[in-house]
Specification:
The structure holds two protein chains of two kinds. Chain A contains 15 helices and eight strands. Chain A is α+β, with helices and mostly antiparallel strands. By secondary structure, chain B is an all-alpha fold. In chain B, strands 1-2 form a two-stranded antiparallel sheet. The chains are: A alpha+beta, B mainly alpha.
């Protein structure tokens, strides 16, 4: 057992940030060794919100376990479900109808934008500006309304089933999404004016929390965190699933490696997401929204793996099947866990204020780390 | 029209007539004390309510709107709640200093009220070193903050207090030099003389560019001195939870909270006096008719109008900007603001010697 209070023998402060702290956005517990205001070491303590989701999945059928995963990374709930559905489909070898694929991808991207909006507001709050949070929520609300109409839920949508989606889209879906795209294009200017261009914000972000490409790879970082260090790792581009192969979009890569690069990656990713939705929204093909599957699904004996790109990075779903109705073992590879492990590397040597800003750009969702 | 000055004379004459001069002086002192405390309470309630409404407008919300008509009683209800709460003292705290700190910060804030002129001839004491007095008493508050942070026996509090100490001591220099820049023009430290010198135009207009630079520097420096965003490092909600007053609760916390708003009021009042003529109405050179109309607006309205305008400005800062980091904060002061304000003082000296300001 190591020291979590008091001072070190060298006279350095040990400070506990969390499990209840405004900057951790959840029940993350960081034990920080401080020399004055400078950080010498960060040690994340996990497990405060561990719910044994992997174990829980073992006693649920292949239709049921998908919905538990909404509670992992609740901000990309839909994308988590997508990964599980794809993995089950891989085992069943079901062909998903094109209409369902379109709907899934559009919903994925809407989820991604909503998640990044929330991150943007929360990051601004971390560096001390309160107002952007409300602006972000205003636009996020439009997305949540679209979700609510189509799926009946706003956050944990539970819209996926193996073989497609649960129900057809709402008749007003296309109109609402087009409205959102127009709104978003207007509001992104406001975002950039209020936060991106702000000199104080840039000073807080630039040159802070540096993560080299080598470290990003060795810590297993993925998503915007790795792409900001110049590592091309977008699963949608490298291992496309559903209709990602057919849409045009740019894999956003920055080479700065600092907090500002991570900020820019996410801002630009939102634009790319809008671009993807724009290509799909007016061309949704007619047809079924769900493939015909058996009432009770049984995966053949074997191992199945599927990765997707969530708003935070690469999510892997690994299913071991013994041929029954429930999985023998499930393992999730969550992006947040790997991204968090690089935090010590990034924030060491910086100030406390830098730690908060860096943690903000990692976009941590604690239930995703703990599962 | 009833002015504050007439009211004051009325009371003074009545007291002189009925109780004799010594008793009158004592009675006046007691009255003043009550008035200052009453002003504190009213200002505190008003400013907190104003801040909540201003932030609500900026954040596309409604703000408090349930307690009382349009939410006007919300802050009173909050105060009542804070008074009823238990004032905890942590186990490991230095109890004496811990309980003393909130009072010191309040007393410092109250003392600054002395030379502020609220209206024409309405002032507690026209002390001849008024502005110097304000600067010096204002710096007492840093002792209270350090005391609070140290005695709490909490690392977050200590970090907040240390930040605050570094910050206030640094930014006092710029604020002081900005004040001196204006003193060069007026040639007097007395608040009354400073206001009187702006009879035919406020210094912000008459003082040309140096006055505007001094005003900007003064506003930045006092925002930092009062620990307001974007310089609220001492409290830094997302980093230090609540900084130096993390361990305070109940009325002791309320005193810190109140002192922050009173300090904002005072620094804005000082800015209004130095740059916008205090209670002096808006006059333009020789436009007699226009000046006469402006004189009809009571001087207290001019003073409070200007002060609240500046307070609005500071609130606007708070709800727009992100927070600086501690090293950036000190860089801004020592590398930019201080040299600029020193140069600006030189510039103002030239303006004053050549009498360009007339």
């Amino acid at each position: 057992m190591h020291e979590v209070a008091g001072t070190t023998p060298e006279g350095d402060f040990i400070i506990n940030v969390g499990p209840q702290h405004p900057a951790t956005h959840g029940v993350l517990h960081l034990v920080i060794t401080l020399e004055g205001e400078t950080i010498k070491k960060i040690e994340p303590h996990l497990g405060y919100i561990h719910r044994s989701i992997e174990k829980m999945c073992e006693s649920l059928t292949y239709r049921q376990f998908i919905y538990v995963t909404s509670r992992m990374d609740y901000l990309s709930a839909h994308i988590n479900n997508h990964a599980c559905a794809l993995c089950v489909e891989k085992g069943l070898q079901v062909e998903v109808p094109l209409r369902a694929q379109y709907i899934r991808v559009m919903m994925d991207e809407l989820t991604r934008i909503a998640s990044h909006e929330l991150w943007w507001g929360a990051l601004a709050m971390d560096v001390g500006a309160f107002t952007p949070f409300f602006y972000a929520f205003r636009e996020r609300e439009t997305i949540n309304e679209i979700m609510e109409e189509t799926c009946g839920a706003r956050l944990t949508m539970n819209y996926m089933v193996p073989g497609g989606v649960m129900a057809d889209i709402h008749p007003q879906f296309q109109q609402k999404v087009n409205f959102f795209i127009a709104l978003y294009k207007k509001k992104i200017e406001e975002y950039n004016e209020l936060v991106t261009g702000n000199i104080i914000f840039q000073n807080r972000m630039k040159g802070v929390g540096f993560l080299s490409a080598e470290n990003a790879i060795s810590y297993g970082c993925s998503g915007p965190v790795a792409r900001a260090s110049g590592v091309a790792c977008d699963v949608r581009k490298r291992y496309p699933y559903d209709v990602y192969e057919q849409v045009q979009f740019e894999e956003v890569i920055e080479t700065g490696g600092d907090s500002f690069a991570r900020y820019l990656v996410r801002i630009r990713e939102m634009e790319q997401s809008v671009h993807i939705i724009e290509q799909l929204i007016d061309n949704i093909p007619e047809g079924d929204f769900q493939a015909k599957t058996k009432a009770v699904l049984k995966l053949p004996k074997g191992e199945f793996y599927q990765r997707v790109e969530t708003a935070r990075g690469e999510l892997g779903v690994y299913i071991v099947s013994e041929g029954g109705t429930t999985p023998y073992r499930i393992k999730f590879r969550s992006p947040g866990f790997s991204n968090l492990s690089a935090l010590n590397e990034m924030a060491k040597g910086g100030k406390i204020g830098d730690l908060v800003a860096t943690m903000g750009t990692l976009d941590l969702v604690i239930p995703d780390i703990d599962r | 029209m009833i002015s504050l000055e007439a009211l004051k004379n009325e009371v003074q004459n009545w007291l002189q007539l009925h109780v004799g001069s010594t008793m009158a002086l004592i009675a006046e002192s007691v009255l003043l004390g009550i008035l200052v405390i009453a002003l504190f309470a009213v200002l505190g309630l008003l400013l907190v309510f104003m801040e909540r409404k201003v932030s609500a407008v900026m954040q596309i919300r409604l703000g408090p709107n349930r307690v009382g008509p349009k939410g006007w009683l919300q802050t009173s209800a909050d105060t009542l709640k804070l008074m009823l709460k238990e004032g905890l003292t942590p186990d490991g705290a230095d109890k004496f200093l811990f309980n003393l700190a909130p009072f010191i910060i309040m007393i410092a804030a109250m003392l600054i009220m002395v030379p502020v002129a609220f209206a024409r001839n309405f002032q507690i004491w026209d002390i001849n070193i008024g502005v110097l007095y304000i600067s010096s008493v204002a710096s007492i508050s840093v002792i209270a903050i350090l005391m609070a942070g140290w005695s709490s026996n909490n690392k977050y509090s200590l970090l907040g207090a240390m930040r605050s100490g570094a910050q206030i001591i640094s930014y006092e220099l710029s604020a002081g030099i900005a004040v001196i820049t204006m003193i060069i023009l007026t040639g007097s430290l007395s608040v009354n003389d400073i206001i009187a010198s702006q009879e035919n135009g406020w210094w912000i207009f008459k003082g040309h560019i140096p006055a505007i630079i001094a005003f900007v520097i003064f506003m930045i420096a006092v925002t930092a001195e009062t620990n307001r965003a974007p310089f609220d490092l001492a409290e830094a909600e997302s980093e230090l939870t609540a900084g130096f007053h993390t361990e305070y609760s109940g009325m002791k916390f309320a005193l810190f909270f109140l002192a922050e708003y009173i300090n904002i009021f005072i620094v804005c009042a000082v800015a209004a006096i130095l740059f916008f003529g205090g209670w002096m109405p808006f006059h333009i050179g020789h436009w007699q008719a226009f000046n006469h109309i402006m004189d009809y607006i009571p001087s207290s309205i001019w003073f409070f109008g200007k002060t609240f305008f500046l307070i609005g400005l500071i609130m606007w800062f708070r709800w727009t900007f992100p927070r600086l980091r501690i090293d950036q904060l000190l860089n801004l002061e020592w590398k930019y603001l201080l040299p600029i304000s020193l140069l600006n003082m030189l510039l103002m000296t030239i303006v004053a010697i050549l009498k360009w300001y007339l």
